[in-house]
Amino acid sequence: MKSSFFTYHHFFIGLIITMMCIVVAACDGSIDEPDEYTTQLVRVQVQGDLPVKEGIAVRMTDDKGMVFTQQTNGEGVATFNVPVGIYDIVVSHVAAPKDGWRTVFNGSVSNVAVRSNGDHHVSLPVTMATTSAIIIRELYVGGCQRDDGSGWYYRDKYVIIANNSDQRVVLPGLCLAIATPYNSYGINKNYDETGHLNYENEGFIPAASSFWYFQDEEVTFEPWEQKVIALNGAIDHTLTYSNSVNLANPQYYCTFDIEHYNSTSAYPSPSDLIPTSHYLKAVRYGDQMESAWPLSNTSPAFFIFTPPEGMTPLEFGNDVTNVWYDEGRALPTFACRKVPVDNILDGVEVFSSAWEEASKRLTSSVDVGMVYMTARYGHSVERRVDRQETERMGHIVYLDTNNSTNDFIEREHASLKDE
Question: Quick check: pTM over 0.85?
Answer without folding.
Answer: no
